[in-house]
Amino acid sequence: MSDDERIWAVRELLLNYVRSPSLRHVRDPHSLGRLAQDIVKRIDSGNSIWSKWDGQREVLLKSAVACWIPIEDMREFLNRMPGPRLTTTDVAQRLKAFEDEQHYAYPNEELHSGCLALYEKEKTEGTELPAVVGLLRDHVEREEERLRGEQQERVSAVAGEGSNSARAAPVVRS
Prior knowledge:
elongated
């Protein structure tokens, strides 16, 4: 939902709220609370095709992209949050949709076992899932940086060998 659409949605709700000839409800805390809920629902729901997902659920799942957290454990945690019940398919496909967006990365297969081991250790110790997600994100970032460094070293070594062998090879003319 664009900013203009959000503004118009809020404007429409406010106009309906003050339309009554009696404006007593304008100062009523219960009526204001209902209006606030209506505004938040209208803005949060937007035109999303993912109707089971609110802001908090999406933020947590987005942050777990590429962390190799078991889908079933993520689903159980998300179902303890307010909102409609999620299935394993709901969680797996929403995660896949985030991965398919341009600014998210697919999980690195090389980090799978390390992430799962760290996840299981933290789960056994009773660490809350959002904290584990943060820890795994840091772990993934460090490991990907290490892997990039190793790859760069290999490329440099191969490039160095290639230039040395080219110099050492005799030129034969026939």
